[in-house]
Fold this protein.
Amino acid sequence: MEKRVTFGKWTIGILFAVPQLILIFTFFYWPAGQAVYWSLTLQQPWGGGNIWVGLDNFRSILANADYWNSITASLIFAGISTGLAMFIALVLAALTDRQLAGSWLYRVVLIWPYGIAAPALAMAFRFILAPEAGFMAFANHFWPGFWDPGLNGADAMASVIIAFSWKYVGYNFIFFLAAFQAIPRSLIEAAAMDGSGVIRRFWDIQFPLITPTIFFLLVINITESFQDSFGIVDIMTAGGPANATNLMVYKIYSDGFKGLDYSGAAAQSIILMLLIIALTIVQFRFIERRVHYR
Amino acid sequence: MASITIRGVKKNYAKTQVVHGVDLDFASGEFVVILGPSGCGKSTLLRMIAGLEEISDGTIAIDGAVVNKLEPRERGCAMVFQNYALYPHMSVAQNIGYSLKVAGVPAAERTQRIRAVARVLELEHLLDRKPMALSGGQRQRVAMGRAMIREPKVFLFDEPLSNLDAKLRVQMRSEIRKLHRRLSATSVFVTHDQVEAMTLADRLVVMNGGRVEQVGTPADVYSRPASRFVATFVGAPAMNMLEGEVVLDGLSLLGGSRKLNVSRTGLAVGSKVAVGIRPEAVRMVAPGTPGALAATVDLIEELGAGRVIYVDLDGASFSAVTSETVHPEPGSTVGLQFAESDLHFFSSETGARLDVFKASVPAPAPATL
């Protein structure tokens, strides 16, 4: 039997829930509702109320090549950075789980990047990946023009992907390590007795058993790569060069707050929300089937 | 089938030594049980044979070949783990057949061998189930099947029955015994349960504190324990142990409050000894019977077939198992009697067995107290 807390009066239960409900309403449902309202109206240039325009905002956005470019850039960014952050974290966690030399160090050090604010880490990476000084300047010395995120869109995209992945490697690592450590030692030993080598054991035993964690991180990473990329893009590339890194979340900001097109930005944020919801549903429908829950 | 030779094996974890130089020989096809309290190093020893634990010093040889540096898979051992260690994401058939899959056995042959093993263990109707959907006993059998299918030279059991309830444990015990008779592979079984050890073993190894205390058949170990530790660890209820000193005409017990007249023990007068007597060897007689030792009844445990009577002997606790129709009341006085040949002597200092009454009398006279 599950233990349940029971209240004499149902009002006490409601009272306990109220603070959380207020928070969710104030910071999620209200703004989201506002965004929906704005996306369906047009703001007057000098104030004085909104004009109902139906789906016109959406039509004009979806007819805009710049917007489609932004969607493509976002999908590329989400795909590569999620893959990179998860793969590196998985390898590091697997090595740490095997108690290799120095593993205690990773354990402590690897969570830190996640605690760094996106703009601060973006600033650091702007220096690290600067084409005129430091490591990449060295590469440029041998292959002139090899690296220039200021002019080359692909280089700029690579920069933001590296910075974002670096932040999420630490986050993913902690989850992966916890998942590996939750696998009973005797399972690995039983597999060893069954004749399975290190690599085989990883694929046959450990990997299937951490699939719930992999799935969870996949959903989180993809969602976050659509949302948490703003600070990094803003500091490192400001969407440039030539809109190459103008991710959806950044375009919402620049159209809304720099271009002062509130209605268009609101419509974009609704589309972004729908896209994330759709991606998450797809993941639950098609990937979760392959997850082994214990 | 394979013999196992263990020579001077030690195990250190950082600074603590848990196994202090063990020498053992297991014959081919033998069922050996390693018995000891928790933390005595018995599991560590087993895991060193399996290759799951590095050997700090000494050698382990299987069939004459030293295996110290070999990976577990190269040693030809199969192991049954205490918590079964079944792969939760695989079906019963996949669990049993995993080692064959790793070895690259073709699917058709694999299926056939899985079926054969499942038939022996009566698991045929469960092959498609996941371990989660099995009962404890079924999981245990799957774990056995996983070990059996490889037709290993050596079976290793790491307390495999300790997670089962009492009834199932008895049943699995006899199944393991039958299985061993059928496969006759060398088996090493680790347990802290002495009933399990006594019933399963061809030969019993009693360990304590990282050392081997005694090796012998279960009957041997019971009737001639090699040390004070073995004497009190094997047998339930535990052997009674009374501290004493050898005096001219017998033994002075419990700091001189009791005296025991025994034949010449051959021990030097003044040497300190511990005298052991099994509760089963104690006879309850009417108080005041000549030569019987008077004691006060403390507590009575009813076993059905008999009863355990705990008595107080000048502050020392002493127990007797009796099936006789004596019904002493707690607090009453009873007489205790036992034969001289049932006494075990151990050195108070080292705990080692002292061989006394070498030329034992055929019909021993009752020891008088």
